[in-house]
Design goal:
32% of the residues lie in helices and 30% in strands. By secondary structure, it is α/β, with parallel strands linked by helices. Pfam families: ABC_tran (PF00005).
């Protein structure tokens, strides 16, 4: 089943074209890494998919177009790039906001909602902070709380923009394990990632963007070739197969031509 179907998507910001006819299909069970250099259009693609920026083209979520905001929130959860929290709410209260699309107006969370919140906090390792104000936590802890809020939404599709930013290696791997688990359970995750090592090791598929277009789409070993790393990222890299999957480590800038 297709959870995200984007066809011929164009976005302009002012006079500048940012997305140039993007087409992308994401099925249930996929963990897709959206990769590419700064300015490639990755964040704009996510925002256009959610209707947050004007666009031209077709975007279908679980086979539907023209969804209301509430209907869309039942299909797709979003972790934005900016994750600073300024509200003195408890961790549990912030995570419970992810249940809003499922609650009738003016109703209180029920047992199913409380279970979803508790499960999301456990997955992101923030259950011990449940009663603390989010503003008392570190930046990385706040990031994990907001990811937990998206997980509590229980949407079949999760879009996450640079979700590993600010996380230490333990929690980066925990997060990637969680995303991989969502895909195995039949959901789908599309994550914008700059860490090519994590993308190569954990994603089932990579979509490489450059200058507002998709230049490669497929399994990590087919996308992250030495030639593409040189031409798109302008780096020399170590690329090897390992027991845990593909290992990719950028080493240096490519030598300038004389």
């Amino acid at each position: 089943m297709s959870l995200l179907d984007v066809r011929d998507l164009h976005v302009r910001l002012g006079a500048r074209p940012v997305l140039r006819g993007i087409s992308l299909n994401v099925d249930a069970g996929e963990f897709v890494g959206l990769i590419g250099p700064n300015g490639a259009g990755k964040t704009t693609l996510m925002r256009a998919t959610l209707g947050l920026v004007p666009s031209r083209g077709i975007v279908a979520l679980a086979g539907n177009t023209g969804l209301s905001a509430r209907e869309r929130a039942k299909v797709v959860a979003y972790v934005p790039q900016a994750r600073e929290v300024n509200w003195p709410l408890t961790v549990e209260r912030v995570v419970s906001l992810g249940r809003m699309p499922h609650l009738p107006a003016f109703s209180s969370p029920g047992a199913q909602d409380r279970d979803a919140v508790a499960r999301a906090m456990r997955r992101m390792g923030v259950a011990a902070f449940a009663g603390r104000a989010v503003t008392e936590l570190s930046g990385g802890e706040q990031a994990r709380v907001l990811i937990a809020r998206a997980l509590a939404q229980d949407a079949p599709l999760l879009l996450a923009d640079e979700p590993t930013a600010g996380l230490d290696p333990e929690h980066q791997i925990t997060l990637m394990r969680t995303f991989a688990g969502i895909a195995r359970e039949g959901g789908s995750v599309v994550a914008c990632l700059h860490d090519l090592g994590l993308a190569a090791s954990w994603c089932t598929r990579l979509v490489l963007m450059e200058a507002g277009a998709v230049v490669a789409d497929g399994p990590p070993r087919d996308v992250l070739t030495l030639d593409r790393l040189r031409s798109v990222y302008h780096v020399e890299a170590y690329v090897r197969e390992h027991d845990h999957g593909l290992v990719v480590q950028p080493l240096d800038l490519i030598a300038p031509r004389q």
